[in-house]
Specification:
It is a single chain. The chain has about 200 residues and is mainly alpha-helical. The protein has a single domain (about 25-195), classed as Cytochrome c-like domain (Cytochrome Bc1 Complex, Chain D, domain 2), CATH 1.10.760.10. The chain is built from ten helices and two strands, in the order H-H-E-E-H-H-H-H-H-H-H-H. The protein has helices spanning about 5-20, 30-45, 65-75, 85-90, 95-105, 120-125, 130-135, 155-165, 170-180, 185-195; strands spanning about 50, 55. The chain has a two-stranded antiparallel sheet. Strand 1 (about 50) and strand 2 (about 55) form a beta hairpin. Helix 2 (about 30-45) packs across helix 5 and helix 3 (about 65-75) runs antiparallel to helix 5 (about 95-105). The longest helix has 17 residues, at about 5-20. The radius of gyration is 16 Å and the shape is globular.
Length: about 200
């Protein structure tokens, strides 16, 4: 394997070690299901959209538990931008966060993917080759600290990639990966991952 192709893999493994969560009590799915009733007011409504900018709120069902803990903790610390999510997580304890992550991760039934609405899936598959080191073949990540992208809403993926490119959402790996992506590249990648069987809508 050429050295340039191994670098993303090595960097992913290095960063994954940096962001790994310390050993702690496991999340409880039943407690998480009670806490999640608030979350389902947005994440449990088919087609529910963020107001501005407009995009569908992400699917959470079947997402990696560790990644969900990292994400919710990022909102709570306000290191990850989104005013609504920062407000929703402000009063969550560490145990609450783990319980919510356990609940959403436990919803394992694969979706059939989404209908294509934007970019070109074939082009997106070619462009996604470098993404597999962290996000896995077809967008199903085998690394618990990195999100599964398969089946996620296309417009949400476009928004996330755009935020990484603009620097409003921060991650040392993603910053390097998206810096040279065009708007067309972002649409194609989002179309490809959205079309794959994966994450579940909870409605």
């Amino acid at each position: 394997m050429p050295i340039l192709r191994t670098l993303p893999i090595i960097f992913c493994l290095f960063i994954a070690g940096l962001v790994s969560m310390p050993a702690q009590a496991a999340g409880d799915v039943e407690r998480g299901s009670v806490l999640a009733t608030v979350c389902l007011g947005c994440h449990g409504i088919a087609g529910y959209r963020n107001a501005y900018p407009t995009y569908r709120v992400p699917k959470l069902g079947g997402q990696h538990e560790d990644y969900l803990v990292i994400s919710l903790s990022g909102y709570k610390s306000q290191s990850r931008p989104h005013q609504t999510m920062q407000a929703q997580t402000a009063d969550l304890s560490e145990q609450n966060i783990m319980d919510l992550a356990a609940y959403f991760s436990a919803q394992q039934e694969l979706s059939s993917g989404n209908p294509k609405t934007g970019g070109q899936i074939g082009r997106g598959k070619e462009k996604a080759a470098i993404c597999t080191a962290c996000h896995g073949a077809n967008g199903v990540s085998a690394m618990p600290n990195w999100p599964t992208l398969a089946g996620q809403h296309e417009d949400y993926l476009q928004q996330a990639l755009t935020q990484y490119k603009l620097g409003s959402r921060k991650d040392p790996v993603m910053a390097g990966q998206v810096m040279n992506l065009s708007e067309e590249d972002i649409k194609d990648l989002a179309a490809y991952y959205a079309a794959q069987p994966g994450l579940v809508s909870l409605h």
